[in-house]
C-alpha cells in the first residue's frame, strides 16, 4: 500500500481500518514531508498489527527524484495530501501562499500519482483513492484558491478513472466535507456537518470495497452541494459563502 500524505489523520485512520478488517500488505510505503510524525505512526502499526512499513520522504514544494520510487510495488494507493493555506484577503494576494496551495493540492501531486498509475496500468490491477473536497464543486469567496485546486484534482481523478477503467484499475474520489483534523483546527465548523477521521476511514473503506466511483463521507454533503451547484450565478455571486 502506498500512502501519500501519511501524516493526515484520515490517512492513518484508513490504514488502521484496513488492517483491522484483515487487509494484507507486504509493506506500507508512508510518503511524508514530516519524518518524525510518520515514524511514530510506523512504530504504532508495527506494534499493534505487526505491519512492516517504509518511510519515503516527499516534499511537493521541491524537485522530485522519481528514480527513488522504481522498486515500489503496490496494489493500493491512498492519497490524503492536502494544504488549506491562508484563505483571507492577505493570503489571496500572497503569491507564495497561492503557489503552495496549487502545488500541494494539484500541480506537483498529479505527476506523483501518474507515476504509480502507470505501474498499476501495466499490471492491470489496483485501486487509487484520492481525497478531494466539496470545496472544488463551486468557487466560493472564502476559499476559492484551495477550491480551484481541488476542482482540478477532482477533474483529474474523474479522467483517470475513465482512462484506467478498461485497464482494470479503479479510481475512487472522496469528498469529505468538514473534517475535524489539524488542518481545520480553530475553524468554526458545524458539528452536524463535521466528520471525524474514524468516520471518514469507515466510509472510505466501505466505498473502496464496493468499488464506488465517488463518495461523500457524510451523505448530507451530497445534498448540500447539489443545492449550491444549482444556485443561479446572478444570485450566487452576491452570497457570502
Protein architecture, described:
Pfam families: adh_short (PF00106). The chain crosses the membrane at residues 214-231. GO terms for molecular function: oxidoreductase activity. Keywords: Membrane, Oxidoreductase, Transmembrane, Transmembrane helix. It is a single chain. The chain is α/β, with parallel strands linked by helices. Helices cover 44% and strands 15% of the residues. The protein has nine helices and nine strands. It has helices at 9-20, 35-49, 89-92, 95-107, 109-123, 144-164, 197-209, 220-229, 233-236; strands spanning 2-4, 28-32, 53-57, 76-79, 127-131, 170-175, 178-179, 194-195, 214-216. The strands form two sheets. The chain has a seven-stranded parallel β-sheet, sandwiched between helices. Helix 1 packs across helix 7 (197-209). The protein is globular.
What is the fold's blueprint, element by element?
Blueprint: E1 2-4, H1 9-20, E2 28-32, H2 35-49, E3 53-57, E4 76-79, H3 89-92, H4 95-107, H5 109-123, E5 127-131, H6 144-164, E6 170-175, E7 178-179, E8 194-195, H7 197-209, E9 214-216, H8 220-229, H9 233-236
Helix pairs in contact: 1-7, 4-6
Please sum up the structure shown.
The mean pLDDT is 94. The chain has helices at 9-20, 35-49, 89-92, 95-107, 109-123, 144-164, 197-209, 220-229, 233-236; strands at 2-4, 28-32, 53-57, 76-79, 127-131, 170-175, 178-179, 194-195, 214-216. The chain is an alpha/beta fold and 241 residues long.
Q: What is the share of helical residues? A: 40-55%
What are the secondary-structure elements, in order, as H or E? Answer: EHEHEEHHHEHEEEHEHH
Largest sheet: 7 strands, parallel
From the N-terminal CA to the C-terminal CA, the straight-line distance is 38 Å
Which secondary-structure class do the elements indicate?
A: alpha/beta
**Helix count?**
9
Shape: globular
Q: Cα-atom Rg, whole angstroms?
A: 18 Å
Low-confidence stretches: none
Strand order of the largest sheet: 3-2-1-4-5-6-9
Overall pLDDT metric: 94
Q: What's the count of strands? A: 9
Strand content: 5-15%
Protein name: SDR family NAD(P)-dependent oxidoreductase
Family: Belongs to the short-chain dehydrogenases/reductases (SDR) family.
GO molecular function: oxidoreductase activity
Organism: Chryseobacterium endophyticum
Amino acid at each position: 500500500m502506498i500512502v501519500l500524505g501519511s501524516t493526515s489523520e484520515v490517512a492513518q485512520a484508513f490504514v488502521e481500518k484496513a488492517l483491522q478488517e484483515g487487509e494484507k500488505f507486504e509493506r506500507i510505503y508512508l510518503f511524508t514531508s514530516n519524518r518524525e510524525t510518520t515514524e511514530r505512526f510506523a512504530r504504532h502499526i508495527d506494534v499493534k498489527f505487526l505491519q512492516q512499513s517504509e518511510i519515503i520522504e516527499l516534499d511537493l514544494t521541491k524537485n522530485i527524484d522519481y528514480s527513488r520510487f522504481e522498486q515500489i510495488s503496490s496494489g493500493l494507493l491512498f492519497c490524503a495530501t492536502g494544504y488549506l493555506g491562508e484563505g483571507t484577503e492577505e493570503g489571496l494576494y500572497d503569491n507564495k501562499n497561492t503557489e503552495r496551495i496549487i502545488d500541494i493540492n494539484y500541480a506537483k501531486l498529479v505527476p506523483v500519482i501518474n507515476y504509480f498509475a502507470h505501474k498499476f496500468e501495466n499490471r492491470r490491477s489496483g485501486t487509487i483513492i484520492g481525497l478531494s473536497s466539496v470545496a472544488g464543486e463551486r468557487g466560493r469567496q472564502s476559499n476559492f484558491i484551495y477550491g480551484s485546486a481541488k476542482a482540478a484534482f477532482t477533474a483529474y481523478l474523474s479522467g483517470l478513472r475513465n482512462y484506467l477503467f478498461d485497464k482494470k484499475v479503479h479510481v475512487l474520489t472522496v469528498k469529505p466535507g468538514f473534517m475535524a483534523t489539524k488542518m481545520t483546527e480553530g475553524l468554526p465548523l458545524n458539528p452536524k456537518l463535521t466528520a471525524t477521521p474514524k468516520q471518514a476511514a469507515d466510509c472510505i473503506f466501505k466505498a473502496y470495497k464496493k468499488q464506488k466511483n465517488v463518495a461523500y463521507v457524510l451523505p448530507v454533503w451530497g445534498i448540500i452541494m447539489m443545492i449550491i451547484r444549482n444556485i443561479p450565478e446572478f444570485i450566487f455571486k452576491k452570497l457570502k459563502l
